[in-house]
């Protein structure tokens, strides 16, 4: 079994995440991709609460049988450190080959992550391409993975919602409906 853990704040999840995860699943031959919602990301302060971000990930991943939403970091108190998540995942899936996937931009700060130098002991670290963050800038043990570059971010989505603009096709339709109903980011 080959399992990908796609880590992010998902504030909110968008099609850039979904396309990157799908491409990574195909390229790496993954059986499953868990979207690990960072409840309290160490380097960011999300706007929407963890449970709302998790619900949006559930909605966004419901129709793809390879995908699921993970509560690993919601269940744990304190900052959502990746090393703790990978240790837990190793214990949960002792036989699996694990891949931790996130954007090339996030890995630039890897030396500052908690036990950053230990992460590769638990999983293969994979960086997906993102416009403006050349994969050539990455170094071992991070493995670069080209995916079609989608120049959208959660920040831009939050800005559009604040300005009363549409986010149709930026996020899956059920997430768009959820955001309309709940009023996040207005
Ligand atoms: N359009 C995209 N293409 C490829 N990777 C992406 C894209 N958007 C986000 N990612 C990556 O997915 C991971 C999780 O993303 P995150 O939830 O932080 O979204 P974000 O759009 O970067 O958020 P924000 O704009 O709030 O910083 C990050 O490592 C990020 O680099
Ligand atoms: O473990 C850490 O110290 C650490 C520091 C920064 C980011 N991360 C993880 O990197 C992933 C992408 O983070 P972000 O902030 O770009 O959404 C997400 O899973 C974070 O939990 C992890």
TrEMBL record:
Protein family (similarity comment): Belongs to the NadD family.
Top-rank lineage group of the source organism: Bacteria
EC identifiers of the protein: 2.7.7.18
Gene3D superfamilies: HUPs
Keywords: ATP-binding, NAD, Nucleotide-binding, Nucleotidyltransferase, Pyridine nucleotide biosynthesis, Transferase
InterPro entries, per database record: Cyt_trans-like (IPR004821), NadD/NMNAT (IPR005248), Rossmann-like_a/b/a_fold (IPR014729)
Function statement: Catalyzes the reversible adenylation of nicotinate mononucleotide (NaMN) to nicotinic acid adenine dinucleotide (NaAD).
Gene this protein is translated from: nadD
Membrane-spanning ranges: none
Name assigned to this protein: Probable nicotinate-nucleotide adenylyltransferase
Lineage of source species: Bacteria, Thermotogati, Deinococcota, Deinococci, Thermales
Pathway recorded for this protein: Cofactor biosynthesis; NAD(+) biosynthesis; deamido-NAD(+) from nicotinate D-ribonucleotide: step 1/1
One Gene Ontology term of the molecular function aspect: nicotinate-nucleotide adenylyltransferase activity
GO biological process: NAD+ biosynthetic process
Enzyme class: transferase
Domain Cytidyltransferase-like positions: 5-160
Recorded catalytic activity of this chain's protein: nicotinate beta-D-ribonucleotide + ATP + H(+) = deamido-NAD(+) + diphosphate
HAMAP family in the record: NaMN_adenylyltr (MF_00244)
